[in-house]
Amino acid sequence: MNKSKQEIRKVVIAGGGTAGWMVAASISKLLGKNLEITLIESDEIGTVGVGEATIPPLLTLHQLLKINESDFMAATNATFKLGINFENWRDNGMDYFHSFGTTGKDCWAAGFQHFWLKAKENGLRDDYGVYCPEHVSALNNKFAVMPNNGLNYAYHFDASLYAKFLRDMSEQYGVKRIEGKISKVNKCHDSGFLTSLLLTDNSLIEGDLFVDCTGFKALLIEGALNTGYDDWSHYLPANSAIAVQTKLIGEPVPYTRSIAHENGWQWQIPLQNRVGNGIVYCNKFMSSEDAESLLLNNLKGEMLTKPRHIQFTTGQRRKHWNKNCVAIGLSAGFIEPLESTSVHLIQRGITRLLQMFPYSGIDETDINEFNQQTQNEILNIRDFIILHYNVTDRKDSEFWRHCSSMEIPTSLRHRIEQFKNSGRVFKNPNDLFSENSWIQVMMGQGILPENYHPIVNQMSKEELNNFMSTLKNNANKLANSLPTHNEFISHYCKTEII
Predict the structure, then answer these.
(1) 8 Å CB contact between 58 and 162
(2) pLDDT digit string (tens) for 87-114?
(3) What pTM was estimated for this model as a whole?
(4) Which domains does the chain have, with CATH numbers?
């Protein structure tokens, strides 16, 4: 039988930060009654801490964990997020917005983009985004939590405060935290399974299942198990980032800003009392000194931290679950934070682990299913990120010329050509991003479909005009009814002292 006889009773989480404490909170809250859960972290080891922007699925995890939204947001200096504003990505001076919401109204045979394309042919001048309530609300700096998911939203938060919030919760559910550094990972000579972690103070932490949250070091999944890594630098050449925090000037907006520069892009993530800033670039096209200078020259507000330099290789571990070790977070791989997917991938890894939790012993069929699902989802995310770089009119630097001319995965090439030819987009299994996300980014980056579905011709010109006007008015009406983003935060989740 292809199964370990060892029942899982002791879970050891190596590393804290966002990933470690999300794992600890989830397992202890949802499965923890019969488990002994230990988390090892060192206060001396800092976290990467650039992942302060999230996407809407995080709300589902919070609901499962019964986290009070107002309490969580007040504790983490959080703001709301309705999407991402992409500036200079298609070309200098050209912006577009990738919202979390649904744009317009689909019919059974064709998405709303087909109706918009027909209306555009008839002389419509409205941008595609004006038919999306989240888009209109964001750019008017409006927000409220609405009944029946009236607005799709996510969060910006302080990653360190989020880890602390989850640590407090986890310890209430019995998680034991051990302060220390790992000096050695011990394995069974016969099976190759991990058996214990030796700390620098000679403490020995034994376990049945190990979760590697040690970040880029990947001490367990790679350092001990030599799992291997698929390098995607040929598709996503950026390999460096610099992060810095500044004081907030003015009011926080309900969206992330992504600002393309000559050799990379800059993020701005507004929290209640500060802004998370950073730049992502490839050191083959720009030096770290020039990148830091570019970032600092484009900051607003007083710097609160020194610039922190981060090196990375985009890609994923060849197995996310290997023997009795599951990698969650940066130890499993890294896709740059362009679409705020880092926290989501932590969440998805946790969800899959909970669904396939090996109480009675580790089964290879579960391992294989876990790895296959994870890899398929990450490949779709990878393609979505490549899309932003490859489909662009920018030719103003060697970096952008490289990105626009590089070979791309066949899977992405198919999606681009299908949309360009017919306006059609189909969501793949395990695809995080909806059809509307693909549409917004492809059109934002400059692809305008050459054809639309003939079903839209069933509408007369007058009917189509009325249809489009109603949808636009509905989006405007909703946005106009909302308080400002800052007004809503002030009475809903204000952070008192940071």
Answers:
(1) no
(2) 999 999 999 999 999 999 999 999 999 9
(3) 0.96
(4) 10-52+158-229+314-362 (3.50.50.60), 240-311 (no CATH)
